[in-house]
């Protein structure tokens, strides 16, 4: 896709990202930029206000450019206006002033920043030392934001706060009580001067974590008493737009989520019989967890990591030239072990824009250090190839043609990215990669997880009525307790995962529905493109789809349907 001569909108979008990265060194680090790598963002109310002011200024500059006619400019303009508008609405609703969440919260973001930093030499570790020394100011700014939220009567729910207190405690206790920051730099091969800086930084960072944990537990948590877990219709409307790039019809999505649940429940019952003749779904999953079936159980995190790396390497080799064009730096993707205190679900971090840091999948430790593989294959198609890694690395390759806003975390729409990754799981099933009954039950379990997310995320936050044919809470209104029971009965991931997921949905309203809504959009766009005429070529369509950059659900289906998809 050749860039057009007129790049006024894309130049504005690039400028917005550069200025945003100056305010947020974590974004700069995600992009692979070296500026500010010994700094952390201002998480105080002043820092929040500075980001909002930049967004409003960019919208004013965008309006002054008028309506573009070039298709690339038009897509960028719509995305820029929608994303900044959604972010401003999110801020105006006071969400940054009550942002206490295990997965999506600022504290988790601060720690994750360190896992993305280069650590190849003395200079890199000196930057790590500088950033650890900046942790106290960042956490103090975050505390001031929560104090401002409390002054306005805006609180996180108690169970979110209690979990973050536990999470911070696990970081403090890591490495036999020396703390996560000390563990992170423990094996650094550096001079005595940098070693001393790292140790001082780790000490003050850990001390700041202790102070934040104690304040959250002793001061903030008691003040949150009575704050409901569900956010209600108005906050949910803002959150759904923030994550999905569209306003949703909650009743339609809720009913559709139930239809998907019922379809998958029936399909899983059939597959369970292939795993263990005569067995039900739960029994078949328990058998796979203990015995492994033909997919096996790997003991030890490093052994599991190595096998998942092989899965990704084999998938790249198999798909290249058939259903995708996988060349150059896109081929490099690493499997890694997640640091202590991460959420229970695997995740992915994208490459830097220059690919000096590759894309990485992260495997959290299990309580018993055993890793049944039956439900990890589909997860790694989602997190790695052809899922998140293929999409986000393709965007990085095209950031010069499009804009940094369209191809990076600065503008990314969850429904697009998570929808593609769930589409990738389904594609691998369509291509026959789940012929093994255990592996296919794992794929269906992953699909069921996302359908359950739709049902209980909407249900808990909006207190919707549970249908009469539900196996849990028939005719009642959703509560977190019913959500936990429903999840545990229908998703085969264990108690720790179920507990973490419940907190995730309650702490990030509207995000959990983005997977299935995005997958639905990707499938609809593909089928409309296929129906446009003979000669549909899936490889060509995939290449064009991955070259667009991120899109919200307002635009995704129409743009996918209009893509060139005919082979030569």
Compile the SSE list and pairings:
Layout: H1 8-23, H2 25-31, H3 45-65, H4 71-92, H5 106-115, H6 122-133, H7 135-151, H8 158-173, H9 180-185, H10 192-223, H11 232-244, H12 250-275, H13 281-291, E1 297-299, H14 301-319, E2 333-337, E3 347-349, E4 359-363, E5 370-372, H15 377-383, H16 388-397, H17 404-407, H18 414-430, H19 437-462, H20 480-490, H21 495-507, H22 514-530, H23 538-546, H24 556-561
Parallel strand pairs: 2-4
Antiparallel strand pairs: 1-5, 3-4
In short:
The chain is mainly alpha-helical. It has 24 helices and five strands. Helix 3 (45-65) runs antiparallel to helix 4, helix 18 crosses helix 22 and helix 20 (480-490) packs across helix 21.
């Amino acid at each position: 896709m050749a860039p057009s001569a007129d790049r006024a909108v894309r130049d504005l979008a690039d400028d917005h990202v550069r200025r945003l990265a100056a305010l947020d060194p974590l974004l700069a680090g995600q992009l692979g930029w070296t500026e500010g790598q010994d700094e952390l963002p201002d998480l105080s109310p002043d820092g929040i206000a500075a980001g909002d002011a930049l967004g409003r200024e960019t919208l004013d500059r965008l309006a002054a450019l008028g309506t573009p006619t070039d298709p690339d400019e038009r897509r960028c303009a719509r995305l820029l206006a929608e994303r900044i508008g959604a972010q401003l609405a999110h801020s105006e609703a006071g969400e940054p002033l009550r942002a206490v969440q295990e997965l999506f919260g600022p504290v988790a973001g601060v720690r994750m920043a360190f896992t993305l930093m280069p650590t190849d030499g003395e200079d890199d570790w000196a930057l790590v030392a500088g950033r650890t020394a900046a942790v106290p100011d960042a956490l103090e700014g975050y505390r001031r934001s929560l104090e401002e939220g409390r002054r306005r009567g805006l609180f996180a729910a108690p169970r979110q706060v209690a979990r973050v207190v536990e999470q911070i405690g696990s970081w403090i206790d890591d490495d036999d009580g020396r703390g996560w920051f000390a563990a992170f730099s423990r094996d650094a091969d550096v001079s005595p001067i940098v070693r001393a800086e790292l140790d001082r930084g780790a000490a003050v960072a850990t001390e700041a974590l202790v102070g934040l944990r104690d304040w959250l537990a002793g001061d903030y948590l008691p003040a949150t008493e009575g704050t409901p877990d569900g956010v209600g219709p108005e906050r949910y409307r803002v959150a759904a737009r923030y994550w999905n790039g569209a306003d949703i019809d909650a009743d339609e999505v809720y009913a559709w989520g139930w239809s998907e649940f019922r379809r998958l429940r029936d399909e899983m019952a059939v597959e369970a019989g292939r795993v263990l003749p005569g067995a039900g779904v739960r029994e078949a999953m328990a058998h796979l967890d203990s015995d492994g079936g033909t997919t096996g159980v790997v003991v030890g995190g490093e052994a599991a990591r190595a096998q998942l790396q092989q899965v990704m390497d084999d998938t790249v080799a198999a798909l290249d030239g058939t259903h995708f064009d996988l060349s150059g730096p896109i081929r490099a993707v690493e499997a890694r072990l997640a640091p202590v205190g991460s959420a229970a679900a695997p995740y992915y971090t994208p490459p830097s824009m220059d690919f000096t840091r590759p894309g990485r999948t992260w495997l959290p430790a299990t309580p018993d250090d055993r890793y049944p593989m039956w439900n990890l294959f589909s997860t790694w198609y989602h997190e790695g190839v052809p899922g998140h890694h293929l999409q986000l690395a393709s965007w990085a390759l095209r950031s010069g043609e499009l804009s940094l806003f369209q191809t990076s975390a600065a503008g990314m729409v969850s429904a697009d990215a998570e929808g593609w990754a769930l589409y990738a799981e389904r594609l691998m099933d369509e291509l026959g990669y789940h012929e093994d009954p255990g592996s296919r039950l794992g794929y269906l379990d992953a699909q069921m997880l996302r359908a359950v997310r739709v049902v209980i995320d909407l249900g808990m936050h909006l207190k919707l009525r549970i249908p009469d044919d539900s196996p849990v809470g028939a005719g009642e209104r959703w509560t977190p307790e019913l959500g936990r029971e429903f999840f545990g009965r229908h998703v085969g991931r264990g108690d720790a995962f179920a507990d973490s997921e419940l907190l995730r949905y309650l702490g990030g309203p509207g995000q959990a529905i983005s997977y299935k809504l995005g997958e639905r959009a990707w499938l609809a766009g593909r089928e409309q493109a296929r129906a446009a005429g003979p000669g549909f070529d899936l490889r060509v369509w995939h290449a064009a789809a991955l070259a667009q950059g991120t899109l919200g659900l307002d635009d995704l289906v129409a743009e996918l349907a209009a893509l060139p998809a005919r082979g030569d």
